[in-house]
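Changelog-linked ticket: alpha-L-sorbopyranose example.
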Amino acid sequence: MKQIRVGMIGYKFMGKAHSHAYRDVPMFFPNIMQPVMQTICGRDAEGVSLAAKQFGWNGYVTDWNELVQRDDIDLIDINAPSDMHKEIALAAAKAGKHLFCEKPLALSLKDSREMLAAAEAAGIKHMVGFNYRFAPAVQLARKLIQEGRLGKIYHFRGLFLQDWIIDPEFPLVWRLQKNIAGSGSHGDLGAHTIDLAHYLLGDIQEVIGMSETFIKERPLPGSMSGLSAKGSASNEKGAVTVDDATLFLARFANGALGSFEATRFAAGHRCTNSFEINGSKGSVKFDFERMNELQVYFTEDAEDVQGFRRILATDPAHAYAEAWWPPGHTIGYEHTFIHETVELLQAIEEDRQPVPNFTDGVKCQQILEAVELSIAERRWVRTEEL
Ligand code: SOE
């Protein structure tokens, strides 16, 4: 069995999710290229050494420059904050390493295009971490659309709703700082919905949006910097430089109309990542908080039993399901990362680009920026303008 030696940068939320995926591959997908958890990298020696031990890495380093140059590393996996993606990706591509980068790919469209160009010039494989594509129920939605079973598609309605910063005293963590995160709910949550829309319906032609920063100033963070930083704040305040919520309308190349809403201010919604798609022959509805299910409606059903029905995407007929448990035994968030990793490993093994790759990352960035331009200029913006 072929092996690939991984060097991973970042060991917090995404670092843990990716590490877990590498660990599960040998057990559940033993017949594909296998990852070797060679070296993990983080700035804080104590933190990264603990993570290395806990997550099962062979070793750790504190300097990513050193990591990308090492001869015993074939793939660089970037889970660092968004402002570091580009620099690391360019250096790693130059060193001939394959790349796996968390979303959003970069802070700007320009930077993401540079990253794609560098990856293409280096002839390496590249993947971007839009993990929600890999929920079997989402893949079923795509299959139904591709096979024409929903007919002509009229509507895409996408929501990504969270509420973790609704408290004005929640500290100004890096995700609320434009220079590090690029944008707020738009690039963090909306990016996922945009990618799902691309995956399910195809290209977006034009957009018009609106956004708001409800809480303009927040206490500077204390020792904690992640999503659970609540209560860890200093008395000093700083400006929030990203959007708290961004909404936009879109017209797809296939003629469908789309509406998108990303917010961190939807009280009671911890992680409502959902979409509904309506076509001439039926509809599908997905909600990540019930990620094993796809609600499906077909106009051709007999009149007396018409209505949405719940498909549990855990049967052998569903993507990745056979690798897991018997039908009806459900899977979770971490499985989206495992499936994404499987796609990456299979693509490298088969000498093809994984999907989604940096091209998809650039396409997403283009829509993020088109929406921002539309907000700044208060008008419809065509994708091709950017
Ligand atoms: C936090 O808002 C976050 O973890 C995002 O960064 C992820 O991309 C999303 O999957 C869930 O929410």
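Closing comment: Example verified and attached. The chain has a mean pLDDT of 96. The pocket of alpha-L-sorbopyranose is lined by residues 162, 188-189, 192, 227, 271 (CB under 6 Å).
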